[in-house]
Automatic annotation (TrEMBL):
One BP term from GO: negative regulation of cell division
Protein name listed in UniProt: MinD-like ATPase involved in chromosome partitioning or flagellar assembly
Classification via Pfam families: AAA_31
Organismal lineage: Bacteria, Bacillati, Actinomycetota, Actinomycetes, Micromonosporales
Region (Disordered): 1-49
Recorded GO MF terms: ATP binding; ATP hydrolysis activity
Organism encoding this protein: Longispora fulva
InterPro entries: AAA_dom, P-loop_NTPase, ParA/MinD_ATPase
Length: 314
């Protein structure tokens, strides 16, 4: 169905002309295209499931979707997962995907997504929010774009967090709703890196507003325990539905497989809708800029499967 967002992006048709150069860079690069990339991992197979995954990611998803990536434990690949899910969905869809670094304490998503053509962050968007909200159509997209950065391959946009921790105070529930509503007017999929503070109104508002929860963890007892505790907390807060529909993303931070992995897969399968496992990749270990094209084909294949599992809940 050729549906249009207010900003004029066709959900299933051609990209708006302004984005063609970005798409050309992203999608013209064979390695950055998830179908091409993952097909590399599938070479020789009779019938590749890759085209099916890409087709599922490209389908009309209806109204814009907010995806919250959460686990209050540090270092459990929230930021990595937010960036790589946005990159995978954005590469498949070609447009309309945004990653918001809503980490209250010095988020690193802006850095890891690569390009920074300006230093504007959520703080500057908040300062100009009324003006942007009052725009519509092309003007809205252009006004908002002044506050966004773009992934190096153009596959998704980034709304960066601010270095100043006092900005967190501005992000009270009404403000978080307004920002998300604005982003829903211009983007189809909004991936939010939620940070680590479950007590904050900001964190709780994003989870409440989310259409899909992604629980990230690594195969370690402390990380899995914290994820489990968070799911208990959300159930106690009356959010059993979002817990049951959640996807658990288990990332392997070392090349050696963890003996805990199989048990954790089983455990989170019993608590959440599905579990996806993504492998260790040396290109991710440095914690610096994430370059989708430098990931191993099997890593891209795993992220393609994971992102499809996430989008199946939309
Ligand atoms: N599959 C992987 N292979 C190799 N390294 C990985 C993998 N997944 C994550 N990492 C690395 O683990 C580190 C922690 O990941 P990340 O920064 O995404 O965690 P986080 O949950 O966002 O942490 P924080 O809560 O501190 O913001 C990073 O250096 C990242 O590059
Ligand atoms: Mg992080």
């Amino acid at each position: 169905m050729a549906e249009r967002t207010e900003a004029g992006w066709s959900r299933s048709g051609e990209a708006a002309p302004r984005w063609r150069s970005l798409l050309g860079r992203g999608r013209g690069d064979r390695a950055a295209d998830p179908a091409e990339a993952a097909n590399g991992a599938q070479r020789g197979a009779q019938a590749s499931p890759v085209d099916e995954y890409v087709a599922r990611l490209r389908r009309d998803m209806g109204p814009a979707k907010v995806v919250a990536f959460a686990n209050p434990k540090g270092g459990v690949h929230k930021t990595t997962a937010t960036v790589l899910c946005a990159a995978t969905i954005g590469s498949a869809r070609g447009r309309g995907v945004l990653a918001w670094d809503d980490n209250e304490l010095r988020g690193t998503l802006g850095l890891r997504a690569g390009s920074a053509r300006h230093a504007r962050t959520i703080r500057h968007l908040i300062e100009n929010l009324v003006e942007v909200e009052n725009s519509s159509g092309e003007e809205l997209r252009d006004r908002l774009d002044e506050f966004l950065r773009h992934a190096a391959d153009g596959s998704y946009d980034v709304l960066a967090g601010d270095e100043d921790h006092r900005v967190a105070r501005l992000l009270d529930p009404p403000m978080v709703w307004r920002v998300l509503e604005l982003l829903r007017r211009t983007h189809d999929v909004i991936c939010v890196d939620t940070g680590n503070n479950v007590e904050s109104a900001n964190w709780q508002t994003v989870i409440k507003a989310a259409d899909q929860l992604v629980v990230t963890s690594v195969p370690r007892e402390d990380a899995a325990f914290t994820a489990d505790w968070m799911l208990d907390l959300l159930e106690e807060m009356g959010m059993g539905d979002i817990v049951a529909n959640a996807v658990t993303l288990l990332s392997c931070p070392t090349p050696t497989p963890s003996p805990m992995l199989a048990d954790l897969v089983k455990h989170f399968q019993s608590r959440t809708r599905t579990v996806a496992v993504v492998p260790y990749d040396p290109a991710l270990e440095s914690g610096s800029s994430i370059d989708y094209a430098s990931l191993k084909p099997e890593t891209r294949m795993a992220w393609l499967q994971a992102a499809t599992a996430v989008s199946d809940g939309f």
